[in-house]
Structure of Phosphoribosylglycinamide formyltransferase:
Amino acid sequence: RRRTAILISGRGSNMEALLRATAAPGFPAEAVLVFSNRVDAGGLDIARAAGVEAASLSHRDYPSREAFDRAVDAVLVARGIDLVCLAGFMRVVSPWLCERWLGRMISIHPALLPAFKGLDTHARALDEGVKIHGASVHYVVPELDAGPIIAQAAVPVLDGDTPDALAARVLRQEHIIYPRALAMVASGRVRLEGARAVSRLDTSDSAALT
Ligand code: GAR
């Protein structure tokens, strides 16, 4: 089982979905560390309660983005981590850390990439009047939210939606596709090949990709 770290900054609902999935027998990844750049992230207590090591370092204690990322990398290496899942980790990852973990670091973004990279995705989707919105799991590369896409899920945008209502609808899908995407990466059924995530599908994956 691939030793997996989950990086968070806040409440950690995607982290919870990943912890639940990885606890199941036969899942190809095990969650061995939850790490936050905020010492008060709510998700840290949830991880501890689930019996998973929870650690944090404040990015404010480091002189540069790369200095912080080198400290994060040292934490990951010390635990023998194989795979990293960014789950609401609200830090731009330095090119140095991206390169070190290329093909082994994935993230979830609350939009149908390549649309709505960056922040405030739900409000921007409503402003644009799109009728379909969703979430994407992708490999992390130096360019923000631009890595090869592993899995996506779509939801309808409904008349009268607020950003919060739309976010909640998308979040339910995030909790489904992120564990599926992690399973695919951990089992080797999807790999990063150049600029593409290439998958060898079996029937259990198809739902995650449509
Ligand atoms: C999730 O919706 C995730 O997609 C988003 O933050 C939320 C974290 O919620 N990530 C980003 O916006 C990344 N730029 P959670 O802490 O409950 O998983």
Remarks:
- The pocket of glycinamide ribonucleotide is lined by residues 8, 10-14, 87-88, 108-110, 171, 174 (CB under 6 Å).
